[in-house]
Amino acid sequence: MLMYLKDFAIEFGVSEIVRFETEVVFVGLVEGGKWKVKSKSKRGEVVEDEIFDAVVVCNGHHTEPCVAQIPGINTWKGKQIHSHNYRTPEPFRDQVVILIGSATSAIDISRDIAGVAKQVHIASRSVADETIEKQPVYNNMWLHSMIKSVQEDGSVVFRNGSVVLADVILHCTGYKFHFPFLETNGIVTVDDNRVGPLYKHVFPPDLAPSLSFVGLPWKGALFPMFEFQSKWIAGILSNRIALPSQEEMMEDVKAFYSSLEASGTPKRYTHNIADYQPGYEDWLAAECGCPAFEEWRKQMYFVAIENLFARPETYKDEWEDHHLVLQAHEDFRKYTLNGVENGYVTSNDVPPSSR
User: Fold this and answer.
1) What is the pLDDT of residues 194-212, one digit of tens each?
2) Helix (H) and strand (E) counts for the chain?
3) CA dihedral sign of residues 35, 41, 42, 45
4) CA nearest neighbour of 117 among 169, 180, 64
5) Who contacts 137 (Cβ-Cβ below 8 Å, separation ≥6)?
6) Cβ distance 123 to 97 under 8 Å?
7) Do 47 and 40 form a contact (C-beta atoms < 8 A)?
8) pTM of the complete model beyond 0.90
9) d(CA 306, CA 41)
10) CA 80, CA 83: separation in Å to the nearest integer?
């Protein structure tokens, strides 16, 4: 992944326009609808205040950990860490470990530490309260319902009634959206992990187009989404693409929030696009005037997800999407036959992930 990002930055000249080792400490509105940006270098030198016409917030959302709120956790004597700080399984050797969460991080880490830990217990709020299941393949891993409480003696009580004396609680519980540098006079807020109000997860209607966000949605193939969002913002800031009126954008936001409420979706899942990622990306592509992703690419993503759950131990080595790979090769042949120059594909229609 790191090699891909570095190659991408070199290919498109990104590194040349990045101010490395610099922290943005303040972004705020000033007169005339412009933005003051204050930053400092890694050496602690404060850079002069700079004024910009527009700001795009792209600081990601995998930095500020979210931890589970459990009765008794503040006096629990065991060790607690977040998946953000997990690196290797060795520190968990011969330990009784409880992981909270059942998404990607919990799946990966539980399997990683099962080979060295004494016991691994996964607590998930997405299963029935009476759940307690031995996990296949492993003789030391169990799936439980969520934790009910923890006791000072180190014991952990699950909603299924079982009790485990644990050494470690590992929070695989995601992250909070966090913008400590951003001051919008209360126009944009973070409420139960909903950043809003935002039109299509990107533009706050009252501050558009001078303020925008890239990369808030989660639970999907994120890099292609980043690219489409960036193209949309660039097109709008260059006056090539027009936004709806503030009133129309706000009505769209209200309708979106109402649909989430009607479907029983918690506010904290506002930016979860798992159920409509392809449609969202197709909409962005249409707004940008860019080709949407090929059908084989969309199918390949969903087949990969299904394979992950069907073959959790071998999904990287066994798959059943050869027909989609053949379709991909056919597309790549068109690109390489029509747009090769000095060994690089130069067609503007080719997404970077295809190069």
Assistant:
1) 999 999 999 999 999 999 9
2) 7, 21
3) negative
4) 169
5) 313
6) no
7) yes
8) no
9) 44
10) 10
